[in-house]
Design goal:
This protein is 38% helix and 22% strand. It contains seven helices and six strands. It starts with a helix and ends in a 5-residue tail after the last helix. It has 138 residues and is α+β, with helices and mostly antiparallel strands. The protein has a three-stranded antiparallel sheet with strand order 1-6-5. It has one domain: CBS-domain.
Length: 138
Amino acid sequence: MQTIREVMTADPVHVPEDMNIMQVAEIMRDRDIGDVIVTNGSSVVGIVTDRDLVVRGLASGNGVEAMTVGSVATRDVQAVGPDDRVGRAVSLMSEQAIRRLPVVDGGSLVGVVSIGDLAIERDPESALAEISQAPPNN
């Protein structure tokens, strides 16, 4: 049985919860990623996706200049440990309808595992795995 450590992305991009959402959007653009982990010190307090920035931030009409990432992040974050079995991540993602899980060890963020990571490992010939491995087209 594989562990999360074997499939996770180590050192995921994370930002403090008081960072402005425009700065977070720029980080996502520059790193070509669709999500970041939101932290308070070394503790995970949320996750935010590019969609969250648009739907909860930009479309709210509340003025993005003063809006922090903490105000648009999903706060009820599920997490796994690096030594957990991959099956645990699959179950959590399925049960909770989520696509990404922070990987936490001793209370500190050490990685992230996505549904695409799991597809690549479990079924490398699947359409999701192929899409996840393809270079970006934008």
